[in-house]
Structures are given as structure tokens and as C-alpha cells.
Design a protein that fits this description.
Blueprint (H helix, E strand, L loop, with lengths): L2 E6 L14 H12 L5 E3 L2 E8 L2 E8 L6 H11 L7 E7 L7 E4 L8 H10 L6 E5 L9 H5 L5 H24 L1 H8 L1
Parallel strand pairs: 1-4, 1-5, 5-7
Antiparallel strand pairs: 2-3, 3-4, 6-7
Helix pairs in contact: 1-5, 2-3, 5-6
Length: about 190
Amino acid sequence: MNKFLLVGLGNPGEKYQDTRHNIGFKIADALCAQYKSDFNSERYAEIASLKIKGRQVFLLKPTTFMNLSGKAVRYYMLLHSIKIENVLIVSDDLHVPFGKIKFKRKGSHGGHNGHRDIIEKLKTSLYPRMKFGIGSNFKASEQSRYVLGHWLDEEERLLADFIKAAVDAITNFCILGIDKTMSEFN
């Protein structure tokens, strides 16, 4: 059976719950709910197990904080013998317009500390990723505050539809792979 590891990046704790940086967690929660599964607290993460069209999917929300996400990703890849091409990292991205999603087969960390740690721990940047656009509506000195800030009311109103589209795209990734997903959703 084909096995997948879908990782939503974010920071644990109420303080970060509805911030832009935690969109990976929000998308993971929506995917978990759609497939009527539940997260359980385990080593380095909250994890849920579900099936998508006969494929075994492990859904992960690292509890190691964003900057140490690689430890959880590596641990669960090894634990469940998941091939790197079947790992999908879901994160926020400042370089993508708000609400847009962009799939990539590989890439640099692009200044994202979660990806930086994953690349370091896996010793490769050759893993699929889905970037959820949070836009870049901030002054140069306010990037950190913007990323860790809460959604504006107008963004919040649109978020549910954008998250639904992201969940559909992730389902597509599990069924058709990265190439077809990139051509359909990018």
C-alpha cells in the first residue's frame, strides 16, 4: 500500500493558534475533519491516520515549534517507512499572494525556518511542498510581526474557502502525485 506523510507546519499553543504562520495546522485540521479522523498526541507531534482512495495517510502537526519541525518529519518518515516523494510539507509563504496555493517538487527554504530545519534534518531539499500564500502586506522591518500576526477580518472571511481548496489539492496530490497536482493547481 502506498503510504503518505502530510505535514502541516505551525507552532503549538494558543498564542499562535490563529496566526498566518499556523496555516499549515489549520489546513491539517480541515483535512483531518473531512476524513473524519482525530489527532493524537505522540512523540514530537500530533498525528492522525486516515485513508484517501485506498492510500494510507499519516497527517502530522509537529509540536516541536516551527524552527525544529525537521525532527518530527524525519522521525515519522523513518517510523512508517515513507518515501520522500510521498511527503508533503504544507506551510505559509510570504512570496505567494494571499489565498493562492503553489506546489513545488523541491526548493530552498526561501527564508522559512520550518523548511530550513526540515532540509537540515533530512539532508535534502528534494521533497514536495505546498505553499499557502499569506501575502506580503507589511513594512520591511515588520515581517516577523506580520507572519506571527492574526488574519485581518477580510482575510478571515475568505479563509474557509481557500482552506477547502487546499484540502482538495492535497487530496489530489495523494491520488495523482506532484506533477499532475502542480499542473492542475499552480
